[in-house]
Amino acid sequence: MNKSDLLMAVYIGGILFLVYLPMAHMIVFSFNTLPLLYYPFQGWSLRWYNAFINDPGLIGSLQNSIIQAGITTVVTVAVSASTALALRRRFPLHDAFFYMILLGMIYPGVTLGLTNLVVDIRVFNIPLSIWTVSSTLSVWTVPFGLLILMMRFDPNLSRYEEAARTHRASEWKVFTNITFPLIRTELIVVALFAFTMALGEVFRSTFVSSLTAPVLPVLLLSTLGTKPPTPEYFALGTVITVVSLSAILIGGAILVRRGGLVTKR
Amino acid sequence: MLTTVELAALITVILVAISLPIAYILAIKVKSDAIKNLVLLVALAPFWIDWNIRMIAWYPVFGANGFLSSIYLWILKGLGYSNAEPVSLLFTNASVIITWIQSLLLFMVVPIYLMMLRMDPIVLKAASTLRASTLKTFYHITLKWSLPGILIGSVFVFSLAMVDYATPLLVGGGLPTIGVIIWQLGSYYDWTKAMALSTLVLAIILVVVAITLRRVSITRILY
Predict the structure, then answer these.
(1) Which of B63, B70, B198 sits opposite A37 (nearest CB)?
(2) Secondary structure (DSSP) of A49-90
(3) pLDDT tens track for A214-227
(4) Which of A141, A215, B173, B174 could form a disulfide with A76 if both were Cys (CB 3.0 to 4.6 A apart)?
(5) DSSP letters of A105-134?
(6) Through-space distance between the first and last CA atoms of chain B, rounded to whole angstroms
(7) Strand segments (E) across chain A
(8) To the nearest whole angstrom, how far is the Cα of A232 from the nearest Cα of chain B?
(9) Which of A193, A242, A190, A210 is nearest to A65 (CA)?
(10) Measured in Å, how far apart are chain A's first and last C-alpha atoms?
(11) Extents of the domains making up chain B
């Protein structure tokens, strides 16, 4: 290892340190015995885990969030898969359609939330619930799913499908026997990413979340914006972090095993 | 309004500077695909965790008796200043910027990395054969080649930082950025005003996107 290699390793190490520094503090301080979030650390206890498990408001909104993220995941997988398959062919306004979907990625979160609020309440008169949150978040998760699928489709997918059609397989048979098995792993990855994205998104869900049964990020922002956090929130955060990190690492590991996070062309 | 644009522009510039070496090291210097993937995966995994939770996780780091303050005191004591006071970074612009570096890094590193992966290593070899200095090679080849990635990443970071209200609210102590103002207006049911402001933000972001798309095509990064 020469000097420049060492320098590069130190640089990457520093970035990783910065990224994981707050995470490590959150996990350690969630076990604090006193309701303090600063040094010196007082000693280990599980009281804050006990506190959040017995907090009906937090647990209720966590349940809402999990159901909402589940709905969003199903919608994202279905819509991004069908869109990615369709976009392989040229059709009128192909590029315009593609860019319109991609707009969901950079469309400002707060604007998306407000627009959906007005459309849901004023135009369609739909009461706010986890369904309005899901419909809003899907606009944002679908383009990410679409990009993952488009970057990683098997280059020979269309050829295999064509071969099956030549042998007079019905379109349904082509999908169930050829297309679906070939994109199944990618769909699992999209589902994992969509679920964790939808579970933690605050900006797009603020205005479309019901006031009586809010999703977790919305409840957290409104509580934490008014009073300082206790280790109770750190305990909750640790649980969510461990679950989300495992989901993302599993998803990433699947992508790596199937030829790298991003494929070289 | 101006504060918001300034802060968003500042974090964009900072992130370009931080991300270029990361993408360069990962895409070009690291030869093993396994290490590339491992570093990328480990570095990017936390970005999918709940935004609020990532924000409050910074409290023990920034606070008056937090991690950074303790290190600062330790260094000062080591230098012989026994009466040094603890400092709190919490609820300052600096803490917002540091938090953003952590939370928006992904959106800058990945587009630049994708562009650099496509760079032909032969060109770099040619440059070194012709005795170009490392800095010259970096400026004339690497930087120009990864420009589309830098632009796309900047659009992402700028548009996310513009309307972020959780960070200014939780770490910045209610810094009145445009996102916080829209959030407050919306929370007090002043939807018309909130919509007017967010339309303005959308217009700014779309102008930035339009300028970027004139220079690069997204599809060039994808295919």
Answers:
(1) B63
(2) HHHHHT-HHHHHHHHHHHHHHHHHHHHHHHHHHHHHHHTTS-
(3) 888 888 888 887 77
(4) A141
(5) HHS-HHHHHHHHHHIIIIIS-PPPSHHHHH
(6) 38
(7) none
(8) 11
(9) A210
(10) 30
(11) 2-222
Q: Is any Cβ of chain B less than 8 angstroms from the Cβ of A199? A: yes
Q: pLDDT (tens digit, 9 = 90+) per residue, B74-122?
A: 888 888 777 777 777 778 888 888 888 888 888 888 888 888 887 777 8
Task: Give chain B positions within 8 Å (CB) of A109.
Answer: 163
C-alpha span between A155 and A178 (Å, rounded): 14
A86 touches chain B (CB under 8 A): no
**Nearest-CA residue of chain A relative to B183?**
A110
Indicate the CATH number for domain A58-228+239-257: 1.10.3720.10
- Name residues whose C-beta falls within 8 Å of residue A219's C-beta, 6 or more positions apart in sequence: A57, A58, A61
What does pTM read for this prediction?
Answer: 0.83
Class of domain B2-222: mainly alpha
pLDDT at position A79 over 90: yes
Contact B53 A26 (CB under 8 A): yes
Q: What's the longest Cα–Cα distance across chain A?
A: 73
Cβ contact, residue pair A106, B37, below 8 Å: no
ipTM greater than cut 0.85: no
